[in-house]
Specification:
The complex is a heterodimer of chains A (about 375) and B (about 900). Chain A is of the alpha/beta class and about 375 residues long. Chain A has 15 helices and 5 strands. Chain A folds into 2 domains: about 240 residues, no CATH class; about 100 residues, abc type-2 transporter like fold (3-Layer(aba) Sandwich). In chain A, strands 2-1-3-4 form a 4-stranded mixed β-sheet, with helices on one face. The longest helix of chain B is centred in the last third of the chain and has 30 residues. The chains are: A alpha/beta (about 375), B alpha/beta (about 900).
Chain lengths: ~375, ~900
């Protein structure tokens, strides 16, 4: 009972401390509002405004038809260039794609001579290269076929592939980007807040004071975990309801309550990780660097930025030990695909396990190092 | 010494200063005579420190006028011209020193700031260290010096440039009597040597003030009286200066003050509160406490005296359980002290030397928090808080934050907190350091009351001899050992000296042996070469000063090998992670088929898909419910539904539809799936058409020749690695430099920017250089890793890339410094740096999506942030075989960013405190 009360009192103290740091509060709010908005509305997840140039040596009705087939939002309006401009344009990155329509293309095509279109792709822009290539292929096939239909008979099988996209029918970037950014902010903030809360006690000498009081390391640590966790839960939930759902009009498929439960488990793990980093670093400058090095892989390899399937098996397996992987997975399942507990329980279980291990490790290290923090 | 004081050295007219609502200085008028030893005395928080920081130019003048050395301190030009002639040593032990730097390096740093050449510096430093007895500690980090030694080092730093006005703010607070005596001897010698130097000192020790030429007594932002010590005594009709000072205070302040009377203690005999047997503490090689034994009875006031760094605090910490002794045992109330024993902790109240309460909580919140953590009964709680507030006269400040309170009141709060749970034992580590005489007497009244009435045992350490005399028994400690232990009177008697102070100094000198003796004997006739270029150096730009900060920053970085190695090893680790981790070729997409036809043909369609390297076949689906379930769980990225009678309808030439359900939760992946599945479908159709047709069908209407340029195999690694370099060279250097300014703000050494000739530009750029060097080292490591370990072909001009990297790293460290200039706490700086660099460099700079594909604010940031330009250069030089000629358009914006960032930082940095 006393333990619970101590944890409660110390947690309230943490909240009061945080509320004095106006600059920090402003940045917390920004990372869950302004930043989410910027990324959701600004960064595309599918092909968007890809810069394309066309060398039209044919100048035929068909080539015009092809030029007109590239339009916003997938492609920027094609720039018509001369052939010699191709290299320079691609070198300096003006165009990701340059399509070369050879002279007599229309005539040769109709004559059945199978003329060749040349498509140059800047393969250093690898994500656009892949998706853009398949878009362009489809567009070109479609346009040439349709043009040819009017001029000659074509034998095709009457099998149509009907593609139905589920969960995000228009493949809207806003839907994906906004929620994933909230999730990234949850991870970042929870680690920074707890880690820094510990270093601050140490740099201001207050940890010494806590140690002469009838308090255990377990109580001191748990207080930081619950209070900083609470801050994040409140801000993140508000962000999902008001910014993501309200302002950006992203539909939420599953149960928000279930998602919040998952978030709590995630925070249990990340706040413990924050404490662990706080015991590892001896000063704020060290903590700042350590955090970068831990946060970057946690965020970029969690499956929230690029698909997990595309990572090497080793990385995939290592990242199974990271809480973010499971949190991203359960968040996508609940929020986008409307999955219920029956589906996401595996991730819940994994988070409980990871959280318990992190908490135990952090507590152990905290106990062992606490006396050297004075 | 007899030069007539023609003009006053400082002239103050109608000076006022406010901190928000609070008035610190109230319409002050004062002239300070030149060539004198001037004392500034007054209770805590009356504006002494504020006045000193104003007249040294450290703080900006709000109202009124100050003339120092014949010019107006509100005029920036005069400040610059005159600052080499003023030296300022702020309050607090070694506040303007750099704790990781050695003694020599600290003084050297200041020498450079004042533009001295190497030979001159070395000569001066040798002289100063010799005369302060710091020679033998030349290479010890300042952080490991005792308080008294730090003060002496502070003085060396202040004196390196021959000031005409030396301003010392409580230089002897927290310094032991022996060191204090040595300190004043040193000042006296310096004044002899350097005629014409004025010294202004504030102090809480009245016996020190007694020796000064001229005194200014202050209270509540006003001048109470000025004159020599004798004049002040006469004015107040008092015997001692201490009494005179109290009598000069307004009635309200000294109300309730009376001479301390100590009732004799009734010894309770065998009731022992503290017992220590052969307590020792070893930190590595250093023996901090050496076989200390103590026995303190219940209700006793036990004093602990000793030189700075002699092990008093360490002993106290061992008794509270904060430190585990290396050997020996400590018992509190008959129980062995054990860090895990919470029951004993409830009986002990501890007050540490440094203020260790929460500065973010108000006085009341601090009291309440501690009452709660000690689990006072709920009914009793608010009464107890009120009681303590009254007892320690904190009623008026209950809603105030501790930082806004003067030191004396903060100490009272600490004591109230230590006592809120009615402990049986109080362990107080220098509780009265920096507290004015009236407050100290009040403090002692409370102690005596506690001891005599409530039988509370008090274990207290102090540097004040009159306080030591009030203790029942005292121990003298030196170098980890207890020298003597008895009642004050007995100690004086045994030593044969007249006073406790002399007895104490006698003991210390005997213990430290010849150390002290050597001090007085070797007195070199120091002829400090007059400083010639100081005045010249103050003007314009100085490389020496800039380099001074560069050297300091570099030394600090070198002394923190953990930080430097995280920066270097961390970068490599991240490079590995991203190089291998992030790939864009989406493979192994899981799919399943809902085959309602179950014919060879439908099977063939599914097999065709499963045979591709992009797709991974999962067990087939039975119905829609299963399809729904398995897609929701994220197991399947694609589900194909082949309708009933698929083969039959196809034979008959009827239109058939195959359904492809795609998980759109992650748009990038969905786009890839769509692309693959469409291509697969087309391929299958063609195959079917060919196999069924008797005539030779053309393969298609046309061909599309796809040329993946720069990266013909479309491998992720060669595309990703050059894109990761800009991210890492933004994040790590920015994070490194982001704390450099804000840390000085938090720790107080920013003062050196305020009061020395260094300009804002020299300060910022000087700090930036070492981080640029680390950044370039990072760049080289990353390039080597990319080319030789990852095997990414490098096709372009490495020189172009290196020049671009230099510009880019300068920009990124500049961004860190800019953030550091803007923020006030380190945690805010870390978070701000993360926000300002991570998202822009990973999302808005073209690593995944080119800037041209972004929208709105993201696009704007992408175009203004340096990341995108450097990314273009990285890809251009690595993959596209380009050089200066082609990449000029990306280099120029990078070069342009630097003056903008540095200019903004210089503009936003303040050269004075406001």
């Amino acid at each position: 009972m006393e333990t619970l009360l101590n944890i409660y009192y110390l947690g309230i103290k943490e909240l009061r401390s945080l509320s004095r740091d106006t600059m920090m509060l402003v940045m917390i709010v920004f990372s869950f509002t302004g930043q989410v908005y910027l990324i959701a509305t600004g960064v595309p997840q599918s092909l968007h405004k890809a810069p394309i140039a066309i060398v039209d040596e044919d100048r035929s009705p068909l080539s015009h038809r092809i030029i007109n087939a590239f339009y916003l939002p997938y492609f920027l309006t094609p720039v018509i260039i001369d052939q010699y401009e191709t290299d320079h344009g691609m070198d300096v990155g003006l165009y990701s794609f340059v399509l070369d329509i050879p002279s007599h293309f229309q005539r040769d095509m109709l004559a059945g001579r199978q003329p060749a279109l040349q498509l140059n792709i800047d393969a250093t822009r690898i994500s656009q290269a892949f998706i853009g290539n398949s878009y362009i292929q489809t567009i070109l096939n479609g346009e040439v076929n349709a043009f040819a239909q009017g001029h000659r008979a074509i034998v095709t099988l009457p099998v149509e592939l009907e593609i139905r996209t589920r969960f995000n029918p228009n493949l809207s970037s806003v839907w994906f980007g906004s929620l994933m950014e909230v999730i990234n902010s949850i991870t970042t903030l929870s680690i920074i807040l707890t880690g820094a809360a510990l270093i601050r006690e140490r740099e201001h000498g207050t940890i010494e004071h806590l140690l002469v009081m009838p308090l255990t390391p377990f109580e001191i640590m748990s207080a930081k975990v619950w209070s900083m966790g609470l801050v994040v839960v409140v801000v993140a939930t508000a962000s999902i309801i008001f910014v993501v759902h309200g302002l950006l009009e992203v539909p939420i498929q599953g149960s928000l309550g279930l998602f919040i439960l998952g978030m709590l488990l995630h925070l249990f793990a990340t706040t413990s990780l924050g404490i662990y980093l706080g015991t590892l670093a001896r000063s704020m400058p060290q903590l700042g660097l350590l955090m970068l090095i831990i946060l970057l892989p946690l965020q970029m390899l969690s499956g929230g930025m690029t698909p997990r399937e595309s990572m090497p098996a080793l990385v995939q397996n290592i990242m199974l030990a990271a809480p973010t992987t499971h949190f991203v997975s359960l968040a996508q399942a609940i929020l986008y695909r409307g999955a219920g507990f029956g589906i996401v329980w595996v991730d819940f279980l994994a988070l409980i396990g990871i959280g318990a291990v992190f908490f135990a490790l952090a507590l152990n290290r905290f106990r062992n190092t606490i006396s050297s923090m004075v | 010494m007899n030069t007539p004081a023609t003009a006053p050295v400082v002239r103050i007219q109608n000076l006022s200063l406010r901190y928000g609502e609070q008035v610190a200085l109230d319409n002050l008028n004062l002239d300070l005579p030149a060539n004198q030893m001037l004392g500034l005395i007054g209770p805590d928080g009356v504006g002494k420190s504020s006045l000193m920081s104003l007249l040294t130019g450290a703080r900006a003048i709000q109202q009124g006028k100050i003339e120092v050395l014949g010019g107006d301190m509100a005029d920036a030009r005069h400040r610059r011209a005159v600052c080499p002639r003023i030296a300022y040593m702020p309050q607090g032990l070694g506040k303007n020193l750099y704790l990781t730097l050695s003694v020599f390096e600290n003084v050297d740093f200041f020498g450079r700031l004042f533009g001295q050449q190497q030979a001159e510096r070395e000569q001066r430093i040798a002289e100063l260290l010799k005369s302060t007895n710091l020679e033998s500690f030349r290479d010890r980090p300042a952080g490991q010096l005792s308080g008294g030694m730090k003060q002496k080092l502070g003085l060396c730093c202040a004196l390196i440039h021959d000031p005409d006005l030396l301003v010392l703010d409580e230089p002897t607070t927290g310094v032991d009597p022996l060191s204090r005596a040595q300190f004043w001897e040193l000042i006296a010698r310096l004044r002899q040597r350097r005629a014409g130097m004025s010294v202004l000192v504030s102090t809480a020790y009245m016996d020190e003030a007694e020796r000064f030429d001229w005194l200014v007594a202050m209270d509540a932002g006003k001048i109470l009286a000025t004159g020599t010590a004798t004049e002040l005594r006469e004015q107040a009709k008092a015997d001692s200066l201490e009494e005179a000072f109290i009598l000069l205070l307004p009635e309200a302040k000294r109300r309730g003050h009376k001479a301390i009377v100590i009732p004799p203690r009734q010894s309770s005999g065998a009731d022992i509160a503290i017992e220590a047997h052969d307590l020792s503490m070893r930190f590595g090689e250093f023996l901090a406490v050496d076989n200390v034994s103590l026995r303190i009875e219940r209700g006793e006031i036990f004093g602990f005296l000793g030189s700075n760094g002699c092990g008093k605090s360490t002993t106290m910490k061992m008794l509270t359980g904060l430190l585990q002794p290396s050997s020996g045992t400590a018992l509190l109330f008959g129980q062995v002290v054990d860090a895990g024993n919470l029951a004993t902790r409830k009986r002990v109240g501890y007050m540490s030397q440094a203020f260790s309460l929460y500065s973010e909580l108000t006085v009341k919140q601090n009291l309440e928090l501690h009452a709660k953590l000690f689990h006072l009964p709920a009914a009793d709680m608010s009464d107890r808080v009120t009681e303590m507030a009254q007892r320690f006269q904190l009623d008026a400040v209950l809603g105030t934050l501790p930082d806004a309170l003067p030191l004396g009141i903060r100490q009272r709060l600490s004591l109230a907190v230590a006592m809120i749970h009615r402990p049986d034992l109080l362990i107080l580590d220098e509780p009265t350091s920096g507290v004015d005489p009236i407050e100290r007497d009040r403090f002692w009244e409370m102690m005596i009351e506690l001891s005599r009435n409530d039988q509370v045992t008090i274990f207290i350490s102090t540097h004040f001899m009159n306080e030591a005399e009030r203790c029942d028994r005292i121990s003298l400690m030196h170098a980890g050992k207890v020298l003597a232990s008895d009642t004050p009177a007995a100690l004086v008697k045994d030593s044969g000296h007249a006073s406790l102070e002399e007895a104490f100094i006698g003991y210390l000198q005997k213990a430290s042996g010849d150390e002290a003796a050597a001090d007085t004997s070797t007195e070199p006739a120091v002829v400090v070469s007059p400083q010639t270029q100081a005045a010249q150096a103050a003007a314009g730009f100085s490389l020496t000063r800039l380099y001074s900060y560069t050297l300091r920053e570099a030394l600090e970085l070198r002394r923190d090998p953990i930080r430097a190695s995280i920066a270097l090893v961390g970068t490599l680790f991240l490079m590995f992670t991203f190089g291998y981790g992030i790939t864009m070729d989406v493979e192994d997409l899981r799919f399943a088929v809902l085959d309602r036809d179950q014919t060879t043909l439908s099977n063939n369609y599914a097999l065709d898909l499963g045979g591709s390297r992009y797709f991974l076949s999962r067990p087939p689906l039975a119905d829609y419910a299963e399809l729904d379930q398995r897609m929701r769980s994220g197991e399947l990225s694609l589900a194909l539904e082949i309708p009933p009678h698929f083969a039959r309808d196809l034979e008959r030439g009827n239109q058939v539809k195959i359904g492809a359900w795609i998980d759109g939760a992650m748009p990038t992946r969905a786009e890839n799936v769509i692309g693959y599945v469409q291509a697969m479908h087309q391929g299958w159709l063609l195959e079917m058409a060919r196999s069924r047709s008797t005539t030779q069908l053309p393969a298609g209407l046309m061909k599309i020749e796809t040329r993946f340029r720069y990266n013909a195999d479309v491998k992720s690694l060669p595309a990703m690695v050059p894109a990761v370099i800009p991210i890492l060279l933004m994040l790590i250097p920015a994070m490194l430099s982001a704390l450099s300014v804000v840390r000085e703000k938090e720790l107080g050494s920013i003062l050196n920017l305020y009061v020395t000739p260094v300009t804002k530009f020299e300060f910022l750029v000087g700090k930036q250089l070492p981080y640029i060097a680390v950044g370039m080292l990072n760049f080289l490591l990353l390039s080597i890793l990319a080319i030789f370990v990852f095997g990414v072909p490098f096709k372009g001009s490495f020189l172009t890339l290196t020049v671009a990297a230099l510009l880019y790293v300068t920009a990124s460290t500049g961004i860190g410094l800019l953030i550091s200039t803007l923020t006030n706490s380190q945690i805010a700086a870390i978070f701000a740096t993360f926000l300002a660099t991570f998202i822009p460099s990973t999302r808005f700079s073209g690593m995944i999506d080119p800037v041209s594909s972004l929208e709105g604010g993201a696009r704007l940031m992408g175009e203004t942030f340096p990341g995108a330009y450097f990314l273009t250069i990285c890809r251009g030089t690595f993959s596209k075989a380009l050089g200066f000629a082609e990449l000029g358009p990306s280099l120029w914006p990078l070069a342009l960013a630097i003056p903008i960032i540095v200019g903004l930082s210089v503009l936003l940095l303040k050269k004075q405190e406001r």
